[in-house]
């Protein structure tokens, strides 16, 4: 019942944010004119933009496959792609992308992957995923003050807020990933506290399972600490993955036949938006992403093409990702764990 209520809340929240975004962006604008401008783009330049989105989803599946195999768990690449799609779909539709990892853990469990291992793998992915943004933000602050003053002045508050939230988030996750004994202590004390205040009923079996789970978690953490090469490989793949998505906006720029701004600048601007909105409690950064785009991309697209450019950029970077991941989530729902289920039924 609680799960159903949560889903109803998430759906209503998503629809409200979507409606507010549409109103805020298009209120008072000539929709007919916007559509006419969009019709003039070269559609062939949008194809590599879609490919960038696919690379983004596919990139995480490569990382999942690599980490699982490094931990001795055999899983097919196609199954890992479905895991990745499930994560991105639920991240797109839940506040702060909070639904992605729990959904992935659920589907990984259906493939008999232990929850502590799947949790550890996804934690490492999240840390590196956010660390790329943190390093990008730090690099801009140290070496790109000219860039910040020229392009980000109207969104400077959101940029630094996003930076601060990402730094705090990464710091907390690093403690849990690389100090498993400390994490175990916190989890056990938290469990005791929840029992004392009667949120959870006292059960020795639950406490025993928690200790066993954290021991498995510790084993995975120790393995990754002792295999720094694994983390380096994950970091490099994540760099390609994240910047592939940022590059989708560059192909939108080319689709309009525009010249004069480098791919590097466009990618950095899109990366700056990601830094700003990644930790905000909005599905897919909806609403604030559009606002920041309109604030910082004016010198790139110009006043006439700014709104059509934003529509196509967000259409690729968020809505195409949402649609593709939704399709493969449906596939995952009908395929993951089905073979094992059929074997059990035959027995």
From TrEMBL:
Membrane-crossing segments per the record: 7-26, 46-68, 80-97, 117-143, 155-176, 230-256, 262-280, 292-312, 318-336
Localisation per UniProt entry: Cell membrane
Function noted in UniProt: Catalyzes the transfer of a lysyl group from L-lysyl-tRNA(Lys) to membrane-bound phosphatidylglycerol (PG), which produces lysylphosphatidylglycerol (LPG), a major component of the bacterial membrane with a positive net charge. LPG synthesis contributes to bacterial virulence as it is involved in the resistance mechanism against cationic antimicrobial peptides (CAMP) produces by the host's immune system (defensins, cathelicidins) and by the competing microorganisms.
Catalysis performed (reactions): L-lysyl-tRNA(Lys) + a 1,2-diacyl-sn-glycero-3-phospho-(1'-sn-glycerol) = a 1,2-diacyl-sn-glycero-3-phospho-1'-(3'-O-L-lysyl)-sn-glycerol + tRNA(Lys)
InterPro entries: L-PG_synthase/AglD
Protein name according to UniProt: Phosphatidylglycerol lysyltransferase
Pfam families: LPG_synthase_TM (PF03706)
Lineage: superkingdom: Bacteria
Record gene name: mprF
Family statement: Belongs to the LPG synthase family.
Record's bilayer topology term: Multi-pass membrane protein
Classification lineage: Bacteria, Bacillati, Bacillota, Clostridia, Lachnospirales
Enzyme Commission (EC) number: 2.3.2.3
